[in-house]
Amino acid sequence: MLAYEEAGRGPAAVLLHAFPLSGEMWRPQIQALARHARLVLPDLPGFGRSPRQKTPSVPAMAQAVAELLDQLGIREPVFIGGLSMGGYAAFEFARQFPERVRGLGLFSTRAAADTEEAKVKRMKTSALIQEAGLESLIQAMIPNLLGITTRKTHPETEVWVREMILRNEAGGVTDALKAMAERRDSSPLLSSMRVPVMVAAGDEDLFIPWEESETMQRAIPGSVLTRLQGAGHLVNLESPEAFNEALGFFLKRLEV
Ligand code: MLT
Fold first, then answer.
1. What is the C-alpha to C-alpha distance for residues 87 and 93, in angstroms, rounded to an integer?
2. Cα(33) to centroid of ligand 1, in Å?
3. Which of 25, 160, 179, 201 is the most exposed place for a label (fewest CB within 10 A)?
4. Burial (CB count <10 Å: 0-12, 13-18, 19+), residue 155
């Protein structure tokens, strides 16, 4: 079973973390959003305190989340939101368990699968981690994870993100690289979404350019788009007040 944190009461809202972090990254959301929902914050397989999977894949991540909900006795449809890798898993959850979804949050993520070039890059990153450990990944990733404004004005955020990454096991991180490289293209799902969808992205995201999120949002009927000014890829912890306000508003509307 996946390790998880829980807070609040009411309809369930599941938030899936980015690579290579853990459920801990949602800490800036707990107090504000527990007023609107029962937050379920899992560590995806191989991250945080969750065990690795025998055959890692994004579909297996989605299945592990469904099993967690079963174990928590959550049978009614949930809001499921994911940031970047968490978004890939949220897409997969919506594909496999459409009847369990009442709303979807797509934060700093993309529907498309990896290009051949991206797959090769992931295999290189995996080899580097096996050789030189997670510190090598941090050097390569931090400039893409955090926006320039955060890096300049909130150095403590960078320290926290580094610590969070280092609390993971290298094996779980390389499993996820393989899983992400093999993930399916979720673009065909976009136009057929029938639940409320919130897309959010930062205008300083170097990993997924803001324009790409805009294009994705336009392809999803009736979806809403939140632009987080001065935030990079990790929008929820770079711009927590604006993110919480937008997601809180969305969750409140989902209830009615
Ligand atoms: C993430 O933030 O989850 C990753 O950057 C996603 C990816 O590598 O595709």
1. 9
2. 24
3. 160
4. exposed
Architecture of the domain made up of 4-255: 3-Layer(aba) Sandwich (3.40)
CA 180 to ligand 1: nearest atom: 9
What digits encode the pLDDT tens for the residues 217-236?
999 999 999 999 999 999 99
**DSSP notation for 142-165:** HHHHS-HHHHHH-HHHHHHHHHHH
Closest residue by CA, ligand 1 atom 5: 19
| Binding pocket residue ranges, ligand 1, CB within 6 Å | 18-19, 84-85, 180, 207, 233
Which pLDDT value is given to residue 140? 87
Burial class (CB in 10 A: 0-12, 13-18, 19+), 98: middle
